[in-house]
Specification:
By secondary structure, the chain is of the alpha/beta class. The chain has twelve helices and eleven strands.
Length: 321
């Protein structure tokens, strides 16, 4: 009799769990973006957001929780109830970088967030003033030979652009001097003025200047060329196969989310991301569609976290909150 009761009880529990997952979402889902309204995360979600809401018959409300390099919004999701109603949309820094930069972060996104899907990546590009070197190899040779003073700019310490510059400096004798700016626009102005000789922004940051011939792209820091810059080689083609950097975006929830919810949401978004119309809109935003599911995203984030940890520790880079 006891065995029958236990089996029956187990069946009821499984039935309740299944019903819960199937009912989700029965109310609006809060999608926390840890940066200012109108930023890349908000824009990316809106590319497929309306279609997703129509599929799930529920609203996804973007909530911009800014501060501390995105750590405040990320922490709110880490500490949220894992019921599928509080999610995070955030970039590379908040999944694979900040835990190695901030001594008092208080959480580990690799172990305390549940990845749903890796949406896309904006590869970085090596950019110089028009009077600069013609190729990345030529620039590296000039730096290594000490033929002048070379600075590299970034939109801030700890950003993927900064870490790409540090890595390139290692490859050229550790003689590049980092100058950090408060965001992309002042970094672009520094490039135009010749205050820095190279930078590693995303394409959208400098697309207007590249089209106008005011700046020059030497290489794309990804494994494939990008449509808007068909004549610009990849870093592998340019002779620097290890210089792979981009700013990728992930949707995740708190650890412990029901796998049925995670897998359902991932499947629905992935279906949308591979549609030609959505892919073309992402290309317009300088993004390459990735559409990694939960398991692939978890492996990807862990690998990237280890890679950035090595770069940060090797260069003793630390930030304080």
């Amino acid at each position: 009799m006891k065995k029958i009761n236990l089996v029956a009880l187990l069946g009821v529990c499984l039935s309740v769990a299944s019903a819960f997952a199937q009912e989700w979402p029965s109310k609006p889902v809060r999608l926390i973006s840890p940066y200012a309204a109108g930023g890349v995360g908000d824009t990316l979600y809106r590319v497929f957001g309306n279609a997703l809401e129509a599929k799930l018959n529920q609203r996804f409300v973007i909530d911009n929780k800014t501060g501390a390099a995105g750590n405040i919004g990320t922490a709110e999701v880490v500490n949220a109830k894992p019921d599928g109603y509080t999610l995070l949309i955030a970039p590379t820094a908040n999944f694979a970088v900040n835990q190695h930069l901030f001594s008092n972060l208080g959480f580990d996104p690799v172990t305390q967030l549940e990845p749903v899907i890796t949406i896309s990546e904006a590869p970085l590009i090596a950019v110089t003033p028009v009077s600069g070197a013609a190729t990345l190899k030529e620039l590296a040779s000039q730096i290594a030979n000490g033929s002048g003073k070379f600075n590299f700019g970034s939109p801030g310490a700890g950003s993927p652009s900064h870490l790409a510059g540090v890595s390139f400096s290692h490859m050229t004798g550790d003689s590049l001097i980092h100058i950090g700016y408060r965001g992309g626009p002042p970094m672009v102005m520094a490039l135009l003025a010749g205050d820095v000789q190279v930078a590693f922004p995303t394409h959208t940051t400098v697309s207007a200047q590249l089209k106008a011939g005011k700046l020059k792209a030497l290489a794309v820091l990804s494994q494939q060329r990008i449509p808007d810059l068909p004549n610009v080689p990849t870093v592998a083609e340019a002779g620097f196969s290890d210089l792979l950097f981009g700013n990728w975006w992930v949707i995740a929830g708190p650890k412990g989310m029901d796998p049925k919810i995670t897998n359902r949401l991932s499947t629905e978004i992935k279906t949308l991301l591979v549609e030609p119309g959505v892919k073309s809109k992402l290309i317009e935003l300088g993004q390459t569609t990735l559409a990694y599911g939960p398991q692939e995203s978890a492996q990807f984030i862990k690998s990237e976290s280890n890679r950035f940890k090595n770069i940060i520790e090797k260069n003793a880079i630390k930030l304080d909150q």
